[in-house]
């Protein structure tokens, strides 16, 4: 066997060093969405809200943020955290269409004038190279319901969940008034919680309806629970239905948290779910909090 000269040895090790320092290309926002679609556990809808709202899907991602709504404070926190891909449950631009300009009325009419709030938010997103993707339809479709799981976890009720239905919990028992006060503290709700029912009513069996829900969801739960904790409902549907039940003497209660407040913990569950799917970058949950305050 012929010995290797010093010059040949240096040449070989130099080539090896070049190869070993090669780094793979950063994952893009589109590639992350493709992974989510593969792992979601449901057929992807042809028509869906879950689309890119701002930014280039081909953008290399430095960090991911999940949030119930891409508010300006949430976007600022994302930038501060070094993240440039924002996964939001609710719209970024104040309407279902999520257009970065003011929407026209339902019946048409003249094109709305540019609005400084829309403009400033859009410029902030573009100037900071953010990519915004909505994840609502399919996140709500997952079983068990991640929004209900997040809400129960936020209340410390994980061990009280029904084995066959994450939307139902059975707690040791508390008055409706004490329960509402406890939830307000745990969610740091500044004023958005509203309650229907006798404050002294003892509550044990509870149904969870985070987000926005129609009356059919409440009708399905109420026969087997003492109270429903919901995010957002129409006042002339579920609220008046429960009001009439209470007026008729039935022992039922309804606690409304607010849509975004009720979805906040579920987007923490989302961050925990996304992280192992995209191990290349860090995924962080940014809570939105309660936008309301209550006058003294």
Description:
- With 296 residues, the chain is α/β, with parallel strands linked by helices.
- Helices cover 38% and strands 19% of the residues.
- It contains ten helices and eleven strands.
- The chain has helices spanning 6-20, 29-39, 72-80, 116-127, 137-141, 146-154, 176-187, 215-221, 235-247, 259-277; strands spanning 52-54, 64-67, 85-88, 131-134, 161-162, 165-175, 194-196, 202-212, 227-232, 253-256, 283-285.
- Strands 5-6-8-9-10-7 form a six-stranded mixed beta sheet. The protein has a five-stranded mixed beta sheet with strand order 1-4-3-2-11.
- β9, α9 and β10 form a beta-alpha-beta unit.
- α6 crosses α10 (259-277).
- The protein is globular, with a radius of gyration of 24 Å.
- The termini are far apart.
Q: Any idea what the radius of gyration is? A: 24 Å
The helix-and-strand class reads alpha/beta
- The largest sheet has its strands arranged as 5-6-8-9-10-7
Instruction: Give the integer mean of the pLDDT values.
Output: 91
Largest sheet: 6 strands, mixed
Indicate the percent of residues in helices: 25-40%
User: How would the global form be characterised?
Assistant: globular
Number of strands: 11
Write the layout of secondary structure elements.
Elements: H1 6-20, H2 29-39, E1 52-54, E2 64-67, H3 72-80, E3 85-88, H4 116-127, E4 131-134, H5 137-141, H6 146-154, E5 161-162, E6 165-175, H7 176-187, E7 194-196, E8 202-212, H8 215-221, E9 227-232, H9 235-247, E10 253-256, H10 259-277, E11 283-285
Parallel strand pairs: 2-3, 2-11, 3-4, 8-9, 9-10
Antiparallel strand pairs: 1-4, 5-6, 6-8, 7-10
